[in-house]
Amino acid sequence: MIVTIKQKILDEMFTYGRAHLPNEACGILLGFRKHHSICVNEFAPLANKSKNPRQKFEINPLELLPYLKEESADRFLVGLFHTHPLASTVPSGEDLKTEWHTVPTHWIISFTDPDRPEVGCYRYLKNANSAIYHALDIFTK
Ligand SMILES: [Zn+2]
């Protein structure tokens, strides 16, 4: 799968994530999917509803509804995004338990070095007993 994102959008995600340190921040990515490619056009921040926001994130599904209702040809939910204030970009065991695994891409931004955030993009695959992930290459434009 080929994943393309505008550098401007990545920068918005970095800025939003940094502003919420030391808590985890989260949001969604909108864009389009065509054959084996995904193109991200827009980042929409969502509140982290977790009671333990330094170590977890939780999205209220109701906050997603307006975006799902408005879906149009180039404005589909193509990704979920959250930050790891102190951990690497690798998805945690908790991350892989997500109910949102069918969303095509999962993005994690690590702030282990707050001046040089790192981004990881993954596809989650889940069956009854386990969950695994594949790292995806990101192309910026
Ligand atoms: Zn995580």
3D architecture notes:
- The chain has 141 residues and is α/β, with parallel strands linked by helices.
- It has a single domain, classed as Cytidine Deaminase, domain 2.
- It has 3 helices and 8 strands, in the order βαββαβαββββ.
- The chain has an 8-stranded mixed β-sheet with strand order 7-6-5-4-2-3-1-8.
- A hairpin with a 7-residue loop joins strand 5 and strand 6.
- The mean pLDDT is 92.
- Bound molecules: zinc ion.
- The site of zinc ion has 5 residues, from strand 4.
- The site of zinc ion (ZN) has 5 residues, from strand 4.
Q: What is the rounded Rg? A: 14 Å
Small molecules held by this entry: zinc ion
CATH classification, class level: Alpha Beta
Query: Which class do the helix and strand fractions yield?
Result: alpha/beta
Per CATH, the architecture is 3-Layer(aba) Sandwich
Helix content: 10-25%
- Overall, the morphology is globular
Note the main attributes of this structure.
about 140 residues; alpha/beta; Cytidine Deaminase, domain 2; eight-stranded mixed β-sheet; 8 strands; binds zinc ion
Task: Give me a quick take on this structure.
The chain is an alpha/beta fold.
Present the secondary structure layout.
Blueprint: E1 2-5, H1 7-19, E2 26-34, E3 37-46, H2 61-69, E4 76-84, H3 93-96, E5 105-110, E6 118-126, E7 131-135, E8 138-140
Parallel strand pairs: 1-3, 1-8, 4-5
Antiparallel strand pairs: 2-3, 2-4, 5-6, 6-7
The structure holds zinc ion.
Zinc ion is lined by residues 82, 84, 92, 95, 108.
